[in-house]
């Protein structure tokens, strides 16, 4: 497999075509690993980036205006708060009540929408969790982890604030510690 | 074996398969599925929360919930494939222990092996050409092949002594 | 203070390593032997320096200096002293330093030897190993400083800094976070050092190969010089893999020893190329063929070693073993890229100088079969590499995350392993240079017959599973062939030297260690194969929730639940829950008590499931305590495995290590032995 040139002494060294193949192959390999590395080094998507549309199916009982599936685009002109959570996630429980109170405060204004995205969870357990914390804002499963993959979340809980133009404004990694913390992020966005 | 016999056997197998597929859900329905039945499916699934650990042995809370979900679905009489399909639509293809389109995953190793075998074969054919047909660049038997065969040497010696 | 001193010594070692590289290149190019000698001495100096650095780190580890971030992360007050020492390689920064320390020990050893015959290789060996060493030390110095200390700044942030920031105070936590409990098992304490030793010692053959390429001295001198290194490297790597398997079996609680986890595969890939190299290098020694191929294998092994380290530390593949991601990923990548490209370029540059000296003469000759062996090993490598990288490719190009689990690897490598076994059965009977179907057939028909008989017995008494039977047939064939080869040697010695069977056996092995050590390795592989076939094909499992006094049944065994107790060990920060179960055999005979355990470590909030194991050569009963309700003892969940033949795997592993040690044991005077063997060969060919 490496000796093929031996029987053709008039040819010196490695033939050009073989060299080209070798280098292209090596380069390809390195490029793939580099891309993987690049992906691993990236954090979550960054503020300032326009967020692409996605569809979120909703648990029954947690629909939005009677719709069992919502799209991000439906909420152009509103501030969108996307919260990733899971019922098995202990830190999520810390912020659940604060999130719900924030929703109760902003929801009625019609200026802000909260969306709960349930990451890698089972529906029965998720319902228990939602009931336990009295959560009422629209919630649905992250089907095939498409949404979390898009946001490149590193874990749960994580919360993404998207402004009226559909541009990512702020990323909260880890739980909120108070209601005020949430308001401090939303209020300037509403004022804009 | 005659064609007829083969056909009969074929029908028999088909019948057997149909019976089995009819019996299995019926048997599962109603009674509580055992841990073993749950584990049999869980073994083939991977939960994204603990990567590289099959679901049946993963200790996290999320995985425990998943196993319960399998149990619920078994109790509802769903088949193994239906349950796996449910998990795929819910959580993505990565819950399966193998990539969904198999040929893509097996293609590269198989092609690489065939390529290697082909090159080796070509190499062999070239090396084994009769010496005359080859440019006499390499002196073929200039030096003896050193056999690191200690025993052979000893056996040779023994023969000579006899 | 002490930590600062440690960092100082670390920086000095880094600079010394860099100096040795520069001095060696300069001395070689400007023809200044004094500079090369200076480089050599600098290289020798790195080991004492790094030993001092390591000593300081160990001092900090043992004495609870939690103001040092690394110490804080991997130890806690409740850990026993020996674990505090071994916590050295329990975290990213420390394990990098550990790697450098081993590396410097090896390079020092190499530079220490007499170089009279190989002067021209010396500078380049120093350059290659020096660059590798400096790279790893650089990681420590610039990104992963094990001596970084925690400082509290005025805005009350606590962070680790190498140098004290302005307006800050040293911060000393009360207690450390403690080592991951999974890493506290004795197997895990020795497993990483073994793996690292294996990894690091493969750098030496690589350094010689590159030196040979650069100087154009492309005879097989570099191979003769590094032969033992390669064997020792292989020994350590194999020991590391085996220990890792045993650790998984004892601690991870999934009843298996190998999960085809990307990180396991990362350590397995250099083993594959290393094994291929060990075989194909013999062709070059004996026949002067395939020089390119051997070079390529050494380069591949080296880069796979680095690649494996990279995979586990860069977060490219997240996996249970991974260290947290950090800035070192891109640097590792660059290092792999540069070494790979340079090495391949060098081979292409020297292509003509690496021509074969002889010709292949027969498809059944030993060298031809070794080539087949290489093809198979490389194919397994491709399967492994592809399996590791496939999820990455899938995600990058289709956006779909996928998992490549055991079924893929088992299906793809199964036929390859079987073919390897077949080769293992045939190759020892074929001769170098020339073999025909006739000579081979004459030698092999008896072992084949024996293997058929054994398989038939297995069919009647043990199993009807086709895969198992194929496996048993191949295993029996290899064992018989190997024993036959052994017997031939012993017999010849007994007759010619009138020795008794034991002395004959001893002397035979001692006289040709590499060959007979190799056979012992083959035999041990077969024992391992028996264990693997047993657990892969015949493993049985059941899980059930039972109350005290109830029992579970599995493949003839009855496991009766007697009692359970739970208690705290505040000193160690662990809660133990231990169940007592009795195991009964098929006819109701009492076989013994087992104590499956569940340990909960408070500081890391991690549970650990320790199985109760009842081992025999036939099988092993492996009981896990899965779940336990403190209040209601009605429901305790056990999982039971019966793993047939699995202990052959561990027995085989032990024999395996013995075999490698025999093969790698230094000869008294290698030069003279070689000359003598050469003379003999002449005599024989004259007699032919």
Spell out the key features of this protein:
heterotrimer; A: about 190 residues; alpha/beta; two-stranded antiparallel sheet; about 40% helix; elongated; C: about 700 residues; alpha+beta; 6-stranded antiparallel β-sheet; 4-stranded antiparallel β-sheet; about 60% helix; flat; disordered C terminus
Mean pLDDT figure of chain C = 86
State mean pLDDT of chain B (0 to 100 scale).
Answer: 74
Termini gap of chain C: 75 Å
Category from helices, strands and their pairing of chain C: alpha+beta
| Largest sheet geometry of chain B | none
Using a beta-carbon cutoff below 8 angstroms, give the protein chain pair with the largest interface and the number of residues from each chain: B-C, 58 and 80 residues
Query: Helicity of chain B, in percent?
Result: 55-70%
Instruction: Evaluate the radius of gyration of chain C.
Output: 28 Å
Record field, number of beta strands of chain C: 13
Helix % of chain C is 55-70%
Tell me the β content of chain B: under 5%
What is the string of SSEs of chain B from the N terminus onward? HHHHHH
Low-confidence stretches of chain B: 22-28, 131-143
What share of residues are in beta strands of chain C?
5-15%
By DSSP, the count of extended strands of chain B is 0
Alpha plus pi helix count of chain C: 20
State the helix count of chain B: 6
Question: What is the fold's blueprint, element by element?
Answer:
The complex is a heterotrimer of chains A (192), B (162) and C (688).
Chain A: H1 16-41, E1 55-57, E2 69-71, E3 79-85, H2 90-106, E4 112-118, H3 123-132, E5 139-141, H4 146-151, E6 158-162, E7 168-173, H5 179-191
Parallel strand pairs in A: 3-4, 4-5
Antiparallel strand pairs in A: 1-2, 3-6, 6-7
Chain B: H1 3-28, H2 35-42, H3 61-75, H4 80-91, H5 102-127, H6 150-161
Helix pairs in contact in B: 2-3
Chain C: H1 2-29, H2 33-62, H3 69-74, H4 81-86, H5 92-112, H6 122-142, E1 149-153, E2 158-161, E3 168-170, H7 186-201, H8 203-215, H9 221-252, H10 262-287, H11 291-314, H12 328-349, H13 366-398, H14 406-426, H15 437-461, H16 466-496, H17 501-511, H18 513-538, E4 540-546, E5 551-554, E6 557-569, E7 574-584, E8 590-594, E9 597-601, E10 606-610, E11 612-615, E12 619-628, E13 636-644, H19 646-664, H20 670-687
Antiparallel strand pairs in C: 1-2, 1-3, 4-13, 5-6, 6-7, 7-8, 7-9, 9-10, 11-12, 12-13
Helix pairs in contact in C: 1-2, 1-6, 2-5, 2-6, 5-6, 5-7, 6-8, 7-9, 8-9, 8-11, 9-10, 9-19, 10-11, 10-13, 11-12, 13-14, 14-16, 15-16, 16-17, 16-18, 17-18, 18-19
């Amino acid at each position: 497999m490496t000796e093929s040139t031996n029987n053709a002494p008039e040819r010196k060294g490695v033939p050009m075509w073989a060299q080209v193949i070798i280098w292209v192959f090596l380069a390809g390999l390195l490029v793939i690993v580099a891309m993987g590395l690049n992906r691993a080094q990236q954090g979550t998507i960054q503020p300032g980036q326009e967020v692409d549309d996605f569809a979120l199916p909703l648990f029954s009982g947690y629909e939005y205006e009677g719709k069992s599936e919502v799209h991000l685009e439906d909420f152009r002109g509103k501030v969108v708060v996307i919260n990733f959570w899971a019922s098995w996630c202990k830190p999520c429980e810390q912020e659940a009540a604060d999130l719900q109170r924030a929703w109760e405060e902003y929801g009625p204004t019609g200026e802000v929408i909260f969306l709960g995205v349930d990451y890698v969870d089972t529906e029965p357990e998720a319902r228990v969790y939602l009931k336990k914390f009295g959560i009422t804002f629209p919630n649905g499963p992250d089907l095939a982890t498409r949404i979390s993959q898009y946001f490149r979340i590193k874990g749960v809980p994580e919360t993404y604030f998207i402004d009226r133009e559909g541009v990512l404004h702020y990323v909260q990694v880890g739980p909120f510690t108070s209601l005020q913390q949430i308001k401090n992020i939303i209020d300037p966005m509403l004022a804009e | 074996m005659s064609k007829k016999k083969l056909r009969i056997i074929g029908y028999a197998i088909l019948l057997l398969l149909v019976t089995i597929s009819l019996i299995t859900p019926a048997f599962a329905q109603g009674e509580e599925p055992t841990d073993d039945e749950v584990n049999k499916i869980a073994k083939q699934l991977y939960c994204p929360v603990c990567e590289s650990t099959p679901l049946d042995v993963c200790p996290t809370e999320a995985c425990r919930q998943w196993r319960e979900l399998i149990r619920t679905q078994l109790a509802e009489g769903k088949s193994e494939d239906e349950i796996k399909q449910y998990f795929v639509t819910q959580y993505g293809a990565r819950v399966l222990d193998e990539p969904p389109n198999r040929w893509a995953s097996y293609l590269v190793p198989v092609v690489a092996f065939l390529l290697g075998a082909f090159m080796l074969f070509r190499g062999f054919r070239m090396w084994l050409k009769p010496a005359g047909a080859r440019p006499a660049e390499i002196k073929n038997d200039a030096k003896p092949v050193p056999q690191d065969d200690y025993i052979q040497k000893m056996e040779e010696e023994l023969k000579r002594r006899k | 203070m002490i930590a600062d001193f440690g960092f100082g010594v670390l920086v000095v070692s880094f600079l010394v390593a860099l100096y040795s590289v520069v001095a060696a290149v300069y001395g070689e190019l400007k023809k200044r032997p004094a500079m090369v000698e200076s480089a050599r001495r600098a290289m020798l100096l790195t080991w004492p320096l790094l030993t001092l650095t390591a000593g300081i780190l160990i001092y900090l580890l043992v004495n609870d200096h939690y103001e040092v971030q690394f110490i804080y992360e991997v130890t806690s007050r409740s850990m026993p002293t020996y674990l505090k020492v071994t916590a050295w390689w329990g975290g990213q920064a420390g394990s990098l330093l550990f790697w450098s320390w081993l590396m410097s020990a090896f390079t020092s050893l190499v530079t220490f030897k007499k170089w009279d015959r190989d002067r021209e290789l010396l500078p380049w060996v120093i350059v290659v190993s020096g660059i590798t060493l400096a790279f790893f030390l650089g990681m420590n110095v610039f990104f992963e400083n094990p001596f970084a200390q925690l400082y509290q700044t005025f805005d009350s942030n606590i962070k680790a800094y190498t140098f004290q920031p302005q307006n800050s105070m040293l911060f000393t936590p009360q207690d450390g976070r403690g080592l991951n409990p999974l890493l506290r098992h004795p197997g895990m304490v020795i497993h990483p050092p073994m793996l690292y030793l294996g990894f690091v010692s493969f750098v030496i053959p690589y350094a010689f190969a590159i030196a040979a390429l650069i100087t154009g001295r492309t005879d097989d001198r570099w191979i003769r010089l590094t032969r033992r290194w390669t064997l020792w490297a292989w020994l350590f790597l194999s020991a590391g893999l085996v220990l890792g398997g045993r650790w998984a079996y004892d601690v991870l609680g999934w009843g298996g020893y190998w999960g085809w986890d990307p990180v396991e595969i990362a350590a397995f890939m250099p083993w594959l190329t290393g094994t291929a190299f060990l075989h194909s290098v013999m062709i070059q020694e004996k026949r002067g063929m395939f020089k390119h191929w051997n070079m390529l294998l050494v380069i591949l092994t080296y880069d796979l070693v680095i690649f494996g380290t990279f995979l586990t530390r860069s977060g490219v593949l997240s996996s249970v073993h991974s260290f947290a991601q950090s800035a070192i990923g891109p640097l590792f990548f660059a290092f792999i890229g540069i070494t790979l490209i340079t090495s391949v370029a060098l081979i292409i540059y020297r292509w003509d100088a690496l021509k074969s000296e002889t010709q292949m003469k027969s498809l059944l000759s030993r060298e031809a079969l070794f080539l087949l062996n290489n093809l198979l090993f490389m194919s397994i490598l491709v399967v492994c590499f592809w399996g590791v990288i496939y999820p990455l490719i899938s995600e990058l190009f289709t956006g779909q995350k996928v998992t490549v689990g055991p079924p893929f690897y088992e299906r793809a490598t199964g036929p390859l392993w079987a073919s390897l076994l077949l080769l293992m059965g045939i190759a020892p009977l074929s001769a170098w240079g020339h073999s025909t179907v006739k000579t081979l057939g004459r030698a092999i028909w008896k072992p084949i017959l024996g293997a058929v008989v054994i398989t038939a017995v297995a069919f009647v008494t043990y199993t009807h599973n086709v895969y198992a039977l194929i496996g048993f047939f191949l295993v029996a064939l290899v064992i018989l062939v190997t024993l036959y080869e052994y017997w031939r040697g012993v017999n010849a010695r007994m007759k010619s030297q009138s020795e008794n069977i034991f002395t004959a056996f001893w002397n035979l092995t001692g006289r040709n260690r590499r060959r007979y050590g190799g056979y012992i390795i083959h035999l041990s592989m077969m024992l391992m194969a028996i264990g693997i076939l047993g657990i892969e094909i015949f493993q049985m499992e059941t899980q059930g929730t039972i109350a005290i006094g109830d029992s579970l049944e599995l493949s003839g065994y009855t496991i009766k639940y007697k009692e359970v107790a739970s208690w705290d060990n505040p000193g160690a920060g662990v809660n133990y829950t231990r169940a007592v179960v009795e195991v009964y055999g098929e006819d109701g005979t009492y076989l013994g008590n087992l104590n499956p355990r569940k340990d909960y470590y408070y500081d890391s909030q991690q549970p650990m499931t320790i199985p109760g194991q009842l081992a025999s050569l036939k099988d092993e009963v492996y009981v896990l305590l899965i779940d336990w309700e403190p209040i209601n003892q009605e429901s305790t969940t056990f999982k039971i495995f019966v793993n047939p033949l699995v202990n052959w795997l561990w027995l085989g592993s032990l024999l395996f290590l013995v075999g490698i040690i025999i093969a790698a044991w230094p000869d008294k005077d290698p030069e003279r032995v070689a000359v003598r063997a050469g003379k003999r060969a002449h005599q024989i060919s004259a007699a032919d």
